[in-house]
Design brief:
Layout (H helix, E strand, L loop, with lengths): L8 E7 L4 H12 L4 E7 L4 E6 L3 H7 L6 E4 L13 H22 L5 H27 L5 H14 L3 H25 L1 H7 L5 E6 L2 E6 L8 E4 L9 E5 L2 E4 L1 H4 L5 E3 L4 E2 L4 E2 L4 E5 L7 H14 L3 H32 L2 H14 L3 H5 L2 H13 L2 E3 L2 H7 L4 E5 H5 E12 L5 H11 L6 H9 L6 E7 L3 E6 L2 E6 L1 H6 L6 H8 L3 E6 L4 E11 L3 H10 L4 E5 L4 H11 L3 E3 L4 H15 L2 E5 L5 H6 L2 E5 L5 H6 L2 E3 L6 H32 L8 H19 L8
Parallel strand pairs: 15-22, 15-24, 22-23, 24-25, 25-26
Antiparallel strand pairs: 1-3, 1-4, 2-3, 5-6, 5-7, 7-13, 8-11, 8-13, 9-10, 9-12, 14-26, 16-21, 17-18, 18-19, 19-20, 20-21
Length: 696
């Protein structure tokens, strides 16, 4: 008998994971535990996946150096307010001892034993965890931020700079607390998404109403959703009618009316009526679950800028340690003033902490992707975010992207003796029994349908039926001409503009002309104009439609280049040609028949990601609400992210260079050094958090 293998892959949520160096160290510590096969730590999403037999207590011990807390994935994490955290309390006590020491040292001297005692107490309480980690790292020759700080503070105490050492420890503790707070703020978007879908659902099963965890709900169960409740599972409305606010999924605040047969999504809000919903997906497969998973994966993927920074930091830290030793030893040996230059060397170590540089890119990427998800735009990685900010041209599919994707009646021109209303009513009544999309488009415009009989469809020509005692024909202009009827010039002109034109007539006379077309989205011309204003002058339409239709629509909305009559493989070739011509090209399509072109483009952007697996899987970016208005927002957000990343790298390095230049006149002090490091870290985090404010 085969032995059953117990599944040991578990996912956890993390708290207090504030720096990439600490995340790397935490991951390394877990790898060293026994029975661990694989570890995957997602810093951006603050998420840990472990393959191995390990307890939460063991994981927390592995992260004890940074107070990392571990929770099961499904647990609703209650985040401790910043003022209640042990780290904050220790920092507050350290500050009080520091103030007491400063007051006493000014009244007596910095060398007063009581003042030294107060400074020492402040350093030990505020920096205990830092010293423990730093000394452990030092014994292993691992040089991270805490190692550098430990060397600097111990060195300051050895040369008698107790006051400055205590100030450095306090400022470092403040910096750590604020960094942790800021990273948690950046991750709030994911946490908000996770809290959207209810954990429990009211299910009607076997004639009974049962309240259960969403994990226990099965496909085919009937979910009961009361007014004012969130919908717990994806499904199809079985009974009831209600307005549902889908902002959580699509970013659109206007509720959508749901009737039997309509799709509903977990995490959306039922506003007014009761609904009975047939569950179609398990809890782990719902649209909101897929969005959360894809956003987390996106935040884990390193953008090109981050890869560069990580690589740079590898060489930067050893270089700083080397410079610090040279500053301490060479001028000290030449001048004999060892105390001054050892002090300057220690200050260089503090300035050199790479924290601000390392965090400069991920905090911007995490914030931008989280903000986009809240606005109903799913960006599947930092690389796609950066590439979107650099695109030079945008190619669009026509049907369902620039147009509505279904026919609408655009023109109704009656002949003498008839009104527009009579023309539409007679045409709709004659085609009342037809299932043709053009017939449905005309039927929508009719005030009411007259009784008809004897409906007959004639392939390639049209249809007719008896309406109010006369035979009404509706069909092609050629068919009307076969009856000897004269077609007015405007009928042919509408046909030349790419519309489907129909004549409505009896055997004896023409009643009027109707034109139907795949109507342009009302927002399309404005979107093309916004792209031009943003500097994207090249907009291209790729369509399988007839060139006359494509050119007419392109002229209406302002697209600069039209390529019509294309099969899916032709669209792929067109995208490759455009890339040779323009460099980086984005392709916007519906995610199914445009899949080859979306995959080949620099950035593939799918319309209508909500509930559409193909769109979520194929494209690099999905516009969840099928809303083209979100395209300029996405490009603007991407460009701002690129700009902020560049600014952050400049801030991180610039402040350190300025601080290091203070060595020349001998003005660099430990507290200036820690201010330069802390200032740079806070500056890059606060600068990145500006991305939260970018709105559609």
């Amino acid at each position: 008998m085969r032995k059953r293998v117990r599944k040991l892959v578990k996912t956890y949520r993390l708290e207090n994971l504030s720096c990439t160096n600490c995340a790397a160290k935490f991951e390394k510590n877990i790898r060293s535990l026994p029975d661990i096969k694989k570890v995957d730590l997602n810093f951006g999403a603050s998420k840990l996946t472990v393959d191995g037999d390990v307890s939460i207590e063991e994981l927390e011990r592995a992260g004890a150096f940074d107070h990392i807390r571990v929770y099961p994935e499904k647990a609703r994490v209650e985040h401790t307010p910043i003022y209640k955290r042990r780290q904050t309390i220790e920092t507050a006590i350290s500050f009080l001892l520091l103030i007491a020491g400063v007051i006493l040292s000014f009244q007596t001297s910095e060398g007063d034993p009581w003042a030294i005692g107060l400074f020492g107490g402040s350093m030990l309480i505020g920096g205990y965890h830092m010293f423990r980690t730093g000394l452990m790292n030092l014994s292993r020759f691992e040089f991270d931020m805490k190692t550098l700080m430990t060397i600097a503070v111990i060195g300051a105490a050895i040369i008698g700079e107790w006051r400055e050492g205590a100030v450095v420890v306090f400022l470092f503790a403040i910096s750590e607390a604020l960094e942790s707070f800021s990273m948690n703020k950046a991750r709030q978007s994911i946490r908000g998404l996770m809290d959207l879908a209810p954990a429990r659902a009211l299910i009607q099963r076997g004639g009974e109403l049962l309240e259960m965890d969403t994990e226990e709900v099965r496909i085919g169960d009937v979910l009961i959703v009361k007014p004012g409740q969130k919908i717990a599972m994806d499904g199809v409305v079985l009974r009831g009618k209600s307005a549902v606010n889908q902002a959580a999924i699509t970013g659109e605040s206007i509720p959508e009316v749901k009737t039997p047969g309509a799709d509903v999504f977990a995490g959306t809000m039922n506003e007014e009526g009761a609904l009975e919903v047939t569950v179609t997906k398990r809890v782990e497969d719902t649209t909101i679950a897929k969005i959360i998973h894809l956003v987390e994966e996106a935040q884990a993927e390193k953008a090109p800028s981050q890869k560069f920074v990580d690589q740079f930091a590898k060489y930067y830290t050893p270089a700083i340690i080397g410079i610090a030793f040279l500053v301490a030893l060479v001028p000290g040996y030449l001048t004999g003033d060892w105390q001054l230059w050892v002090y300057q060397g220690l200050a260089v170590l503090v300035v050199g902490c790479p924290c601000a540089l390392v965090v400069s890119t991920p905090v911007a990427i995490v914030t931008a992707i989280g903000n986009a998800a809240r606005q109903g735009v799913l960006i599947k990685g930092g690389i796609h975010l950066e590439e979107t900010g650099r695109i030079n041209a945008v190619a669009f599919d026509k049907t369902g992207t620039l147009t509505k994707g279904y026919p609408e009646m655009t023109d109704a021109i009656p002949e003498k003796g008839y009104t527009k209303q009579q023309l539409v009513q007679l045409a709709a009544s004659a085609e009342a029994m037809s299932q043709h999309p053009l017939a449905r488009a005309i039927g929508k415009e009719a005030p009411h349908i007259l009784p008809s009989e004897g409906f007959q469809s004639i392939t390639g020509k049209g249809a007719y039926a008896e309406v109010e005692g006369q035979r009404i024909h509706i069909g092609s202009l050629l068919w009307a001409e076969e009856f000897g009827l004269q077609i007015p010039a405007h009928g042919h002109k509408l046909q030349q503009s790419g519309k489907s034109v129909m004549a409505v007539f009896t055997k004896e006379s023409l009643i009027g002309i109707l034109a139907v077309a795949d109507a342009v989205r009302t927002e399309s011309p404005g979107i093309i104009q916004k792209l031009k204003e943003m500097g994207i002058g090249s907009t291209i339409m790729l369509t399988g439609d007839h060139p006359a239709t494509a050119n007419a629509i392109a002229a209406e909305i302002g697209v600069t280049d039209v390529r019509a009559g294309l099969m899916p493989q032709d669209k792929l070739s067109a995208v490759r040609e455009l890339q040779q011509q323009y460099g980086r090209v984005a392709m916007v399509g519906d995610g199914i028949n445009d899949a080859p072109a979306l995959a080949a483009s620099t950035v593939g952007i799918a319309m209508g990601g909500a509930g559409t697996d193909a769109a979520l899987e194929t494209a690099d970016i999905a516009l969840m609400a099928d809303d083209l208005e979100k395209l300029p927002y996405t490009i603007r957000l991407s460009r701002k992210t690129l700009r902020i990343i560049k600014e952050n790298i400049m801030f991180a390095l610039g402040l350190k260079v300025i601080a290091l230049l203070l060595i020349i006149p001998g003005w660099l002090t430990l507290w200036i050094a820690i201010f330069a490091d802390m200032g740079a870290t806070l500056l890059v985090i606060l600068n990145a958090l500006r991305l939260v404010k970018v709105q559609k």
